[in-house]
Amino acid sequence: MPNQYAYLGPAGTFTEAALRELKPEVPVDSTVPCTGVDAVFTAVREGRVDGGVVPLENSVEGGVSATTAELIEGAPVMVTAEVAVPVEFTLFAREGVALADIKSVATHPHALAQCRGWLATNLPDAETFSVSSTAAAAQAVAEPGSPYDAAVSARIGGKRYGLRAVAEGVGDRSDAATRFIHIARPGPPPAPTGADRTSVVAFISDDHPGALIELLNQFAMRGVNLTRLESRPTGDGLGKYCFCIDAEGHVHEARVGEALMGVRRICTDVRFLGSYPRADGDTTLTPLQPPRRTSNADFHEAERWLARVRSGEVT
Ligand SMILES: O=C(O)C(=O)C[C@]1(C(=O)O)C=C[C@@H](O)C=C1
């Protein structure tokens, strides 16, 4: 199915806004709203779409566990792009409903977590309900006989379903942002840009003192900066964790490739999730000059030296 892209729907979610930023050339009728992050992954895995966009982490509430779980388990998919979207929340209700009338509020759990303070102060007696997305909440509120009086959603979400804004800026942090990723079926990663990120999931082989330090050292000793480390249960029993790691750089860079080989050597399993351009595109974070003695040239010179030593050419 060519040129179809799935996203966490319905229309009007922050994820749809992220898809627009990542794929501005894709017409609306080539986008496929899905009810849930798992449905986006399924559409990608089954080849019904070319790619999909899902939320990965929020600057206030942290990781989106449905996305992390899908990245770790099931048929592999690859991250090929990312975007960070500022998230501003609005409280929407049907025409004629005032703040004082609101007794129930629906929204996505991540949105709820980001508006908890505002809701506690301004609607202390309102009951809150979690639904599959902020736009799904707005859609539900707009339905006749809706069980909810109000929805917390993106401005475009509430407007799309004909609701009226009762209060703007109801998030507890005005600078909140969510990082979204574009996923596709496995293939060669996009070419390095000089400001890239590499994501992997590492499964440590045996629990022993310093196991995590050994893992992190693979990156540190090769001058690779980590931007995210999240532990997640493997499901195989209490205390069994794997580690989701985001690192600066691209698998085609020698220092990143060598770090990943080191990780592979000390882990039972490593799932490579992709190397892709960083949303900030800030080449000062991955200096075009990597840290001292970790440039491609440094690694290649060391490889050539080892080859000479092995061939008996002692230098
Ligand atoms: O419900 C939406 O609008 C979404 O796109 C999902 C989501 C999330 O999963 O975190 C995205 C951004 C906001 O942080 C709140 C909800």
TrEMBL record:
Record SUPFAM superfamilies: ACT-like, Periplasmic binding protein-like II
Site (Essential for prephenate dehydratase activity): 178
Transmembrane segments: none
E.C. numbers: 4.2.1.51
Signal sequence bounds: none
Catalytic reactions on record: prephenate + H(+) = 3-phenylpyruvate + CO2 + H2O
Pfam families: ACT (PF01842), PDT (PF00800)
PROSITE patterns: ACT, PREPHENATE_DEHYDR_1, PREPHENATE_DEHYDR_2, PREPHENATE_DEHYDR_3
GO MF terms held by the record: prephenate dehydratase activity
Domain Prephenate dehydratase intervals: 4-185
Gene3D superfamilies: 3.30.70.260, Periplasmic binding protein-like II
GO BP, one annotated term: L-phenylalanine biosynthetic process
UniProt KW keywords: Amino-acid biosynthesis, Aromatic amino acid biosynthesis, Lyase, Phenylalanine biosynthesis
GO CC list: cytoplasm
Domain ACT: 200-275
Residues in coiled coil: none
Pathway field: Amino-acid biosynthesis; L-phenylalanine biosynthesis; phenylpyruvate from prephenate: step 1/1
Domain of life: Bacteria
Name assigned to this protein: Prephenate dehydratase
Organism classification: Bacteria, Bacillati, Actinomycetota, Actinomycetes, Streptosporangiales
Gene name in the database record: pheA
